[in-house]
UniProtKB/TrEMBL annotation:
SUPFAM superfamilies: P-loop containing nucleoside triphosphate hydrolases. This is (d)CMP kinase. It catalyses: CMP + ATP = CDP + ADP; dCMP + ATP = dCDP + ADP. One of its GO terms (cellular component) is cytosol. NCBIfam families: cmk.
Length: 202
């Protein structure tokens, strides 16, 4: 079974997807970490070929055998990740890898185009969102940066993600919208896990 969770930055996708996977006994796939790995590689070498990079995502993230779990969360990598995600060649290379992974077993996969491009036949598609202010506040708490600064960057990133030609950010037509504004993590996880269990039992 595959649960696809899409949505903009700061909507809670990663935290929710990881917790839901744990609750259901599924494997968690953070596709955003894969794009961040390519971004980090490109910052180190602008000509890095995403098809040749060794990327492993799990509890720790490995790039060419090196642990980059913390390095890929740096501000410069975050900014570059949004840019490389708009590169059709990068998306094509990573989508192939993602589909190969998701082809076997039970998964909770999160990103920006899981339900629309990577796995349009997913058993359950969810689109997590929250107000701009709520998303910025969450990210500011994670990074220790001013909310106003995060909000400005977030709006730029949202625009890039929604307007890019390659796999723009949008909800799949058959995705269920989950507005996480004002909800606790436990409430969102319980809601998503219940929907997944209902689909699996059907």
């Amino acid at each position: 079974m595959l649960v696809a969770i899409d949505g903009p930055a700061g909507a809670g996708k990663s935290t929710v997807a990881r917790a839901v996977a744990r609750a259901l006994g599924f494997t968690y796939l953070d596709t955003g970490a894969m794009y961040r790995c390519v971004a980090l590689a490109r910052l180190r070498d602008p000509h890095a070929d995403p098809a040749r990079l060794s990327i492993e995502v799990g509890d720790r993230v490995l790039l060419d055998g090196h642990d980059v779990t913390d390095a890929i969360r740096a501000a410069d990598v975050t900014a570059e990740a949004s840019r490389v995600a708009g590169d059709p060649a990068v998306r094509a290379a990573l989508v192939v890898r993602q589909r190969e992974l998701l082809d076997h077993g039970d998964w909770v996969a999160e990103g920006r185009d899981i339900g629309t491009v990577v796995a349009p036949d997913a058993d359950l598609k969810l689109y997590l969102d929250a107000s701009d202010e709520e998303r910025a506040r969450r990210r500011a708490e994670q990074t220790g940066r001013p909310v106003a600064e995060v909000l400005a960057e977030q709006r730029d990133r949202d625009a890039r993600d929604r307007e890019r030609e390659a796999s723009p950010l949008r909800a799949a037509p058959d995705a269920q919208l989950v507005d996480t504004t004002g909800l606790t993590l436990d409430e969102v996880v319980e809601l998503v896990a219940a929907r997944a269990q209902a689909v699996k039992a059907a």
